[in-house]
Amino acid sequence: MATFPPAPSGLVDGKAHRFVVRAYFEDTDLSGVVYHANYLRWFERARSDFVRLLGIDQRAVNEAGEGAFAVTELTIRYAAPARLDDAVRIETTCEELGAASCRMHQVARHEDGRLLSEARLRIGFVSPEGRPRRMPAAWRAAFATIMPEGI
Question: Which of 27, 29, 57, 112 is catalytic?
Answer without folding.
Answer: 29
